[in-house]
Specification:
By secondary structure, the protein is mainly α. Helix content is about 70%, strand content about 0%. Pfam families: polyprenyl_synt.
Length: about 280
């Protein structure tokens, strides 16, 4: 077993990202669902810790896989501590959270943890496949991915398999300790869709968001976000967006062009979807 000193060394990237201020969406969501589920407070406290660990560890991996430069307005962890140490740290935290879940002594909780972590990685894997093979998914394929992933844990801010995965994990763990038998999956998936498309939308347009992320970071990462998918699918003969995505450009001028033409005309679709899921 690692000594306390060595443990601190192993967890330096995790400690760094955990100290960066976030939106506390996970805590608010868990509190909201607790009003229905009424799980034991000590179990909820452990579940909150598990979800926080998984969320921050997943961000360490996401930033490496996306070749990101900034996270919450600060340099990404792997630029400070190096890629190998950051990968090892994130994986270590995954197992620490698994150990904590096991300590809950609830077989159903362990099943929920395993299933949602599998779905999380399936969603992230599809996201990476589409990006690296320059293969634009359909809107339905994208929404399914969002509902299966991290979506970033109820809680992260989200990607559904990716985003919804952490949402469902948090709610599923709480429900393992609750007498409530209601199926919250449709609500959780709706939240995941809403938050992911919102994140995609403001990544391209919101000036305040750009202060904490590089300008139009999704374009630099070559990521098929929802507004890009709609624009590409609506006009498959126009290859400009695909060409820009392929370059993973850092040019502000080129990214401004991409947002304006032809992407700009399709942003109303994203706004309509947000209104639908946000009702």
């Amino acid at each position: 077993m690692a000594t306390e000193t060595n443990e601190r060394k192993l967890l330096e990237p995790y400690a760094y990202i955990s100290e960066l201020p976030g939106k506390n969406v996970r805590g608010k969501m868990i509190s909201a669902f607790q009003s229905w589920l009424r799980a034991p407070p000590d179990a909820v406290e452990s579940i909150q810790s598990i979800v926080d660990q998984l969320h921050n560890a997943s961000l360490l991996i996401d930033d490496i896989e996306d070749d990101s430069e900034m996270r919450r307005g600060q340099p990404v962890a792997h630029h400070i501590f190096g890629v190998p140490a950051t990968i090892n740290c994130a994986n270590y935290v995954y197992f620490l959270s698994l150990q904590r879940c096991q300590a809950l002594g609830n077989p159903k909780a362990m099943q929920v943890y395993t299933n949602e972590m599998l779905r999380l990685h399936q969603g992230q894997g599809l996201d990476i496949f589409w990006r690296d093979h320059l293969q634009c998914p359909t809107v339905d394929e994208y929404l399914e991915m969002v509902q299966n992933s991290y979506v970033h844990f109820i809680l992260s801010i989200l990607k559904l398999d990716k985003t919804g995965g952490l949402f469902r994990l948090a709610v599923g763990l709480m429900q393992a300790f609750s007498d409530c038998t209601l199926d919250f999956t449709p609500l959780v998936n709706a939240l995941a869709v809403y938050f992911q498309i919102r994140d995609d939308y403001i990544n391209l347009l919101d000036e305040a968001y750009m202060e904490n992320k590089s300008f139009c970071e999704d374009l630099t990462e070559g990521k098929f976000s929802f507004p890009l998918i709609v624009a590409i699918r609506e006009n498959p003969q126009d290859t400009r967006l695909l060409s820009i995505l392929k370059q993973r450009t850092k040019s502000v001028q080129l990214k401004q062009y991409a947002v304006q033409i032809p992407l700009h005309d399709n942003l109303s679709v994203s706004r309509g979807i947000l209104r639908h899921w946000g009702c």
